[in-house]
Amino acid sequence: MTISTTAATAVRAGRRLGPLLPARLRPSGRPLLWLELAFTAIGYWAYTLSRNAVPTHRGAALHRAHEIFDTERLLHIDIERTVNHAADHVTWLIVGMNYYYATLHFIVTIGVLVWLYVRHPGHYRSARTALYAATLLALAGFVFFALAPPRFLAGQGFIDTVVKHHTWGSWASGDVASLSNQYAAMPSVHIIWSAWSGVALAFLARRAWVRVLGVVYPLATFTVILATANHFVADAVAGALTLAAGFLVQRLLTGRPAYARREVGPAAGPAAGPAVRPVVPPV
């Protein structure tokens, strides 16, 4: 078999990924709103409950954090401390980043979900499935790879910017520490959710400036998670790979890419025609 024949076979196999679900379980139209809201609420509640129930494994989490930081230094990608100290020199900037980290990933992700449901119903189910699959994979990472954030590394010079500037949700006050697993850094859910939102905007938004925001948003989130000493570069890389795996799961389940281009406009709603020119989203 020639190389060209092998490559062609691989391409055809890639196009035949899935579907693992029967046709009746993979509709492409807009789901019922009340059912979707209930499903989303239950899913988030179960995710939060499971995430926070994971044992902290403090010793192992700290040991892994030191190992990751040492490895990044060997690879000369240990930019976390530099970004952390540079941002902390500008009080208004770092305080804004603290609030960005605490709130924006919820607000933007929910906003994009609503936008997809209302304006792009033909893409909503697939995009939502990719997001949920990636989030569940992240939960598995928290269970099997507890990891401390950089701000917990005593003696390494990191600044815990939330504690220093006394912004809302201070870990030192216990209001956040008592409600959240402090050792769930790998992979970064902030990167998963921001990149998912950015991909949706980049592929589907009509206005150029909104598509640009879709590209900028995950890059800004990457800067924020380093500046606030909440994640390593490795956490961000793992988050991007986890999102890619989420899109792969969605493709295997439905047999179609999440953002296949359609000949009809978004106004067609649930009756949208079949997808053409499949496009696999970069993540």
Task: Give your account of this protein's structure.
The protein has 283 residues and is an all-alpha fold. 63% of the residues lie in helices and 1% in strands. It has 10 helices and 2 strands, in the order H-H-H-H-H-H-H-H-H-H-E-E. The protein has helices spanning 3-15, 33-53, 58-75, 80-88, 91-119, 121-144, 161-165, 189-204, 208-227, 233-254; strands spanning 261-262, 275-276. Helix 5 (91-119) crosses helix 9 (208-227). The two termini are 33 Å apart. Mean pLDDT is 82; it is low at 6-11, 171-175 and 263-283.
Summarize the structure.
This protein is mainly α and 283 residues long. It contains 10 helices and 2 strands. The model is unreliable at 6-11, 171-175 and 263-283 (pLDDT under 50).
- End-to-end separation in angstroms reads 33 Å
Largest sheet: 2 strands, antiparallel
In round numbers, the mean pLDDT is 82
How does the helix and strand content classify structurally? mainly alpha
Strand order of the largest sheet: 1-2
What is the number of independent domains?
A: 1
- In terms of DSSP E residues, the strand content is under 5%
Number of helices: 10
Would you report the number of β strands? 2
Radius of gyration: 20 Å
Low-confidence stretches: 6-11, 171-175, 263-283
Shape annotation: globular
Element-level helix/strand string: HHHHHHHHHHEE
Percent helix, as a range, is 55-70%
